[in-house]
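To illustrate the input format used throughout this study, we show a single complete record. The first block contains the structure-token representation of the backbone; no residue identities are included at this stage. The design step must infer an amino acid for every position from geometry alone.
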């Protein structure tokens, strides 16, 4: 207890930069028909984007695509550069808040799987970006969603096995990686 109190006091006296997470802004359609995918968080049931910690050996876009697969069964193509960033406090298991910044990568959805690692643990909903902005709690994410326009299809059509593309064994083979055809980073 004493050590945790000392750590908390140190954090308050000398704040650190926010921890980095990666998020996937999964989208389908174009123009006025664009929809974005929201999922519920497992802990609170709030509407959020698929997101998680950076993954060693994957680019930011590759890690965001992996999170979209694990949390929502998304197959898609992630743009290599983030479309924006937003800040929020992640509540740790200890109950303490951890300031985070999420780098958000656009993911053009090419398919949805029924079987994926977190299937049945979250609800999924497709929404127009303006409606999605009303459903999420984080002001920075609300602003990002309000101004989101799906990139032209040509920008996300490059497929390949470059950095960030999944190459694991896939579901049903004993591995935790999505199939190689699941997605790529362009």
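Output of the design step:
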């Amino acid at each position: 207890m004493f050590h945790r109190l000392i750590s908390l006091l140190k954090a308050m006296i000398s704040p650190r930069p926010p921890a980095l997470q990666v998020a996937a802004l999964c989208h389908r359609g174009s123009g006025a028909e664009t929809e974005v995918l929201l999922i519920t968080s497992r802990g609170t049931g709030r509407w959020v984007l698929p997101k998680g910690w950076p993954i060693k050996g994957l680019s930011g876009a590759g890690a965001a695509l992996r999170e979209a697969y694990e949390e929502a069964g998304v197959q898609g193509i992630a743009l290599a550069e983030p479309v924006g960033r937003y800040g929020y406090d992640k509540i740790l298991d200890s109950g303490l808040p951890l300031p985070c910044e999420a780098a958000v990568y656009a993911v053009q959805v090419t398919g949805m799987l029924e079987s994926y690692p977190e299937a049945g643990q979250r609800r999924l909903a497709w929404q127009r970006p303006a409606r999605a902005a009303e459903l999420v709690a984080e002001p920075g994410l609300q602003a990002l969603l309000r101004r989101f326009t799906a990139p032209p299809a040509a920008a996300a059509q490059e497929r390949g096995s470059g950095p960030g593309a999944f190459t694991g064994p896939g579901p049903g083979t004993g591995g935790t990686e999505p199939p190689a055809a699941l997605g790529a980073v362009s």
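Structural context for interpreting the output: The beta strands are 19-28, 35-40, 47-48, 51-52, 74-78, 84-91, 97-112, 124-127, 183-185. The first helix runs from residue 2 to 13.
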